[in-house]
Amino acid sequence: MPIRRLSVQLANQIAAGEVVERPSSVVKELLENAVDAKATKIVCDLKNSGKTLIRVRDNGQGIPHEELPLALAPHATSKIATLEDLEAILTLGFRGEALASIAAVSKLTLTSRTKDEDHAFSVEVEGPQQDPEINPAAHPVGTSVEVCELFFNTPARRRFLRSDRTEFMHIREIFVRTALANPDIDFELNLDGKNVVNVKAVMGDEKKRLVRLSKLAGSDFNRNGIFVRGEDPCLNVSGVLLPPPDVEESAVENIFLFLNGRPIADKVLTHALKQAYSEVAGRSCPVRCVLYLNCDPHEVDINVHPRKDEVRFHEARLVHDVLLETVANSLRKELRSVDDGLKKESGVDDVSSFEDKDQGADENPLGQFVKDIKSAASSRLKFSSYSGGNFDKNKSFGADNYVALDSIGNRRSINYSPHAIQMPSSKDSVKENLRRYDYRIAAGNAQSRAGIYDIERVDLTSPKAAKLLSLPAPDVLLVMQENRYFLVKASVLNRELVSRDYMAKVKLGTVEVYALSMPFVLKAQKTLINAIKACPEALVRAGFTLNLKKESIEFLKIPSLLQGVDLAGILFKALPLAAAGAKNLSMGICPKQLADMFAAAKKSVVYYKDEAQVIVDKISDPEILESLGADAFELDIARWARELGGANNA
Q1: Which long-range contacts does 225-233 make (Cβ < 8 Å, 24+ apart)?
Q2: Ranges for the DNA mismatch repair protein S5 domain (predicted)?
Q3: Less CB within 10 Å around the terminal CB: N or C of the chain?
């Protein structure tokens, strides 16, 4: 067969195959045209799920009557004129082939009126034979497009259509996405004369916007939605997330993404969302979100596919990382606040919950003991403030220096911290603590409280091993080590042990690493990049594998210790520290400040008996407890026991 030029009619039908796949494709193109026409209300009517009729009406700007035939011609549009326009597209449509493609496979009527015209005009076409006549019509300002008998002239295409229910579900999804992308427009969807979707425009009010969003995307977004907002030079993010579902909960992935007002389906962005959810949840889980993304139109190419739902970013990796960090940080922040709220409701992290107002000191010695510890710490605080001491307000125990008496009654200071302050002992306070705490703590009176605070029977015959005696208060351990007794803050002890373990692994060169599924890119100053470039072996020893770019650092592997944390926040602080101590790091000597920073990056947890026992088992020397400063202090049990014995004898 010789090469020949295809007829216009045949070319239009071939082009229609790319644009018009099913009724939902027609609805999508017509809705986009209505939005571009600056409509404030759009109504879509269907019969037989669009197989018999699709009508889209809007109150937009309308089309001048002399341009109506041109609107149905291929490659005719009012939205772009030059190549420069194609590089920064702000409208939903721009290809100029939607109406022509739809008209090629249907019986189409286009009716429109502008505000400057006295009445409306319409044109009608059937199939690819387009020779429309302009006729007067009755119509308000705006445009209506009626598409009847879709694929009437291509029976093979019509046979591939699915059931009415399936086709309508595709249409509804397109309609919902368009309505979500344009909260400032009224949308109405009718099927066979029955209203299916009807949402009003919402401007400004965030609560009303959330109600409108949940009406379209699902009621869960109103009940459990997490607001997300992030700003970056390459991408601005806003919208609503649903938290990762429980393991046993059945949830379906539901992702709505909009870029510069355009509904999109992008693999890079979807991967970032899935990675953010998996990092926070610690497992793969369905993503459920409605996110509005904005970027410079010059930085994204939307002319990828005739459907216009695929995009290509010029800085795809950077966009990926910005979205990942924004979503992950929002999820972590919300889950952290939920955890705090649950703890507060149950009293698990509130020391005051042990100060039972309905019980006297004699009935609740444990609660009164904790209260008196706080009181004693408060008195020491006042003293340190008066004496001009340098007291760290972040120390939760409030006891920088604990003064105890040794076995023969001499005063000795246990100065744990380099910033600790020498304080006098409060004899009256110690005696009061003794009377209220006394022998009943050993009798297990605290067992009337939550089971996690039970006092476990322990073998006291081995003086070397650290033993967990009790959890007398939230996040507080009572530990015996070499016949010495300490009250220790569990979270601080755990961080210290993790820090020491990391330092030991750096020394041995055995730091466990985690390979990122997508490289994490961090923008950095040239001075820092040059400093790291001068000593690459230091960061390798610390557990990092990276590539240095001109203005950024690309992380391929990180220490397993940092898996699931806010990488941007921790690396921004840690890299200068690592660069400054690069020489020591290269020799296996990790700066303590760096190890402490990594250990503290993990989310705090509530420690129960089993978890606490695991921590205590790692204590190899009392020096570890003594190094905790104000977050641990020693109890002079021997002296209290002597005083108690003397009081009983008296």
Answers
A1: 226/330, 226/331, 226/334, 227/330, 228/289, 228/291, 228/326, 228/327, 228/330, 229/330, 230/322, 230/325, 230/326, 230/329, 230/330, 232/322, 232/326
A2: 213-332
A3: N
